[in-house]
Amino acid sequence: xxxxxxxxxxxxxxxxxxxxxxxxxxxxxxxxxxxxxxxxxxxxxxxxxxxxxxxxxxxxxxxxxxxxxxxxxxxxxxxxxxxxxxxxxxxxxxxxxxxxxxxxxxxxxxxxxxxxxxxxxxxxxxxxxxxxxxxxxxxxxxxxxxxxxxxxxxxxxxxxxxxxxxxxxxxxxxxxxxxxxxxxxxxxxxxxxxxxxxxxxxxxxxxxxxxxxxxxxxxxxxxxxxxxxxxxxxxxxxxxxxxxxxxxxxxxxxxxxxxxxxxxxxxxxxxxxxx
Length: 275
Hints:
By secondary structure, the chain is mainly beta. The protein has one domain (about 55-260). It has helices at about 40-50, 255-260, and strands spanning about 10, 25, 60-65, 65, 75-80, 85-90, 100-105, 110-115, 130-135, 145-155, 160-165, 175-180, 190, 200-210, 215-225, 230-235, 245.
């Protein structure tokens, strides 16, 4: 059992990130096939060309961008994974009132509004937000997945994200919520059986590793699927092997779970000499 050393300690509010220009993209798996080389056995070529064990689900994902806003909003971010669908977050409130994050989802003529208190989070340091459309139930009905960067830990720099899953049609009922770290391509993963839909990979930090001048973290993954009563562990899909990730690879807000959990090799525990 991993000791979970140093995890969740000395967490800091994230600095205000530079939000990239608005874009709607698809996370698509990239698997280059190596060119033939003289003298290489066919078995090696086939092994090198085989698909990774974890492939990103090709779904529309929109990064939220900051928009100019007058009035109650100190900061406003919006994302549109489809032309007729938008999600906006308005950060507002001033002392003595607690700051709040107010959300608006619109599709066609339907919309939903709700707000949450930010508690100890700093309003002008709210992090990145992505909005995706993904079928997490395997029924052919996509859900709205709102991913928000909540915090970055001191030291190694582990990125904590909150996920809010809604119906993609009015009244946009909340279906589930979850927390994960190092959200990014591979969090929404292609199903290995080829059936419709995506599986959700929840990533957890198991152990922080420090070896003199270097540091990193061991990550574990758990497959989830959306059921009528919320997100539930997916026992039919084996959990990916734990992976050690160097702190140098955690510099971006978004992680690379599709790459990390597909990588071959024994990097599943802290390197020798870690403390």
